[in-house]
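Reopening this one. Same input as before:
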Amino acid sequence: MSQNTERTIRIALAGNPNAGKTSMFNALTGSHHKVGNYPGVTVEKREGSLEYRGTKFHLIDLPGIYSLTAYSLDEVVTRDFVLDEKPDIVVDVLDSTNLERNLYLCLQFQELGIPVVAALNMSDEAEQNGLLIDANMLSRTLGIPMIKTVGTEGKGKEALLDAVLEAVEAGSSGKMPNYGTEIEAKLALLEAGLKSDAVFSDKYPPRWMAIKLIENDEHAIATLSQHGSGAKLKAQAEEYRAWLSKHFGKDAEIIITEQRYGYIRGALKEAVKKIPRFKASVTESIDKVLMNEFLGLPVFFLIIWGIFKLTFAVGEFPVQLLERFFAGLSSLLMAALPAGFFRSLLVDGIIAGVGGVFSFVPLIVMLFLSLSILEDTGYMSRAAFLTDKFLHAFGLHGQSFMPLMLGFGCTVPAIMATRTLKSPRDRIATILAVPFMSCGAKLPVYVLLAGAFFTKNPGNVVMAIYLAGVILSMVSTVFLRKTVLKGQTTPFVMELPPYRMPTVRGIFWHVWDKTWQYVKKAGTVILAASVLIWVITTFPQVGNESELASRFADEARIEAPAAAQEQLDGIVAARLSEYRLEHSIAGSIGKFLTPVIQPLGFNWKIGVALIPGFTAKELVVSTLGILYGAQIDAGDGASLQDALRNDPRMNPLVALTLMVFILVMPPCFASLATIRAEAGNRWMLFQVGYSLTLAWVLAFLVRAAGSLLTGM
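Same output, byte for byte:
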């Protein structure tokens, strides 16, 4: 076997969801990507490189799919990449515990006529389940290399790369699957006709295209318009489909599917032996409780409730430490630097804004840690099954559960994960439902307000808001499915992976990646926004401040004649700061918004804070930190929560109303851009108008109902 140090071998890494494809990608390239134990994790191709035996390999990690019949967007991505980009080889990662299902996709790659190597991944789990796989016999039967691997541990990766080198050098796709005399005869005739156009057959492999035409694949039929004899071939394919359907008594697509599975079963019959097990597996034992008809959903909700309680119980102390750190840093700079714009920028702008967001990092870490463990153990797939019937009742697909759960982390990947849904209506319905899930960016706002005004049970209040978002997404979907998205939801089919122990490395990189995204945003977008907010809250200057201070001092002495000088100075400083804010650019903006937000009980400061919230929800916290900066500076170790509590225009009802508005208002700009990319301008604009209107209406109703009940 010769080795070429000049050439780069391009590998398309493919496979079914849950087969461990991304784990294998990480093992080969050393990259650290999210590895989740449920379908739909990889919704875009990812790339990585490595060198082995003097040859450079470039890997493209394609979406996890079940078939090349392109019903969903992830199937389209994979099919188009292989057809258009023409990689040197496909490495198909197979779940060794479920070879019959996984080999179905492998046969379709062979039909493309491209070299294929199969990685018998999770081979250790297969042995634990009593499956003895003769990889050599299976390789001889199917005509492609079969290499046993364990992606999470990197086992077998060298043997896999050796097989890739040999297969690429051989340049053959191996033995082509045979689907029986009658079908092969029709395929041969179609292949001959397809080969008559050399340009067409160079782009679209003739045998694969012939099979797709027999399957009545819409994309394949539409592609015939590019062929010189397209009309003739289309009629020929229709004739053959009709003949096969009459001969077998079934639809042609079903016939091809049955022939593939028949071919696979024949190959597995001799190569795989099953040793009977006399006791239930760990997965079966756990599922008796977690998938129980009566206990499953209550246990699921108990787990989610436990995550929120744990997040606040563990995260509260480090949050307080960070708050004290930033408060101490502000005090240090106030004492060390002379009064002026530079000190104000550092203390009132950057530290008040960015520091307020950084303080909530421990809560973000705990939330992502908990969700990562659930994902990597395989529990999320079970939760999807448990909620399938529930979701169908509201017009959502059972597979919508995955994007909805991802929405608790970040709306952007959650929207992208809707590509796993095959029906366009199901996709749009899920895309519009995802923003109601409270992403990690909304959590700091909830924590700030709940901690300030619901001190006895802040965790329960935050969970109630999260739950309200879930309920709202369901109710909203019912409305949309009865109006702009009429139509039936498609059936839900998904395999349950076995439970797996999460790896420390996988959990670490998952949490690190999400936390780093949050911190990076705080250090870039939020930093820039904090400086901008400081500018609009500082300028223009109000003129002769000494005269204003004297006036405020006289008023304070009249209102509080017995107050000590230190108290009077604090009152004067607070009033002077309030006056500056009201006459700044921010004050003008807030007063302009007042007629719209006043019915919700919001003051002009909240109006100003909501505007950058359209860019990133964390900016609501940083903006409030800047707007209430004087009250924070005036207090001894006071925090933003203290400043909010001390504002006479703020109370628990206003805080609750604001949390509801934040929950429902349009998602951040990045999420809107993703909606535009995935669903088009029309649905992006609809999302903005719909959610903004709904946010105002629901906040108004909460405010009105609360006022009637509490008199606030």
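So the earlier flakiness isn't reproducible anymore. For the record, DSSP finds 34 helices and eight strands in the chain.
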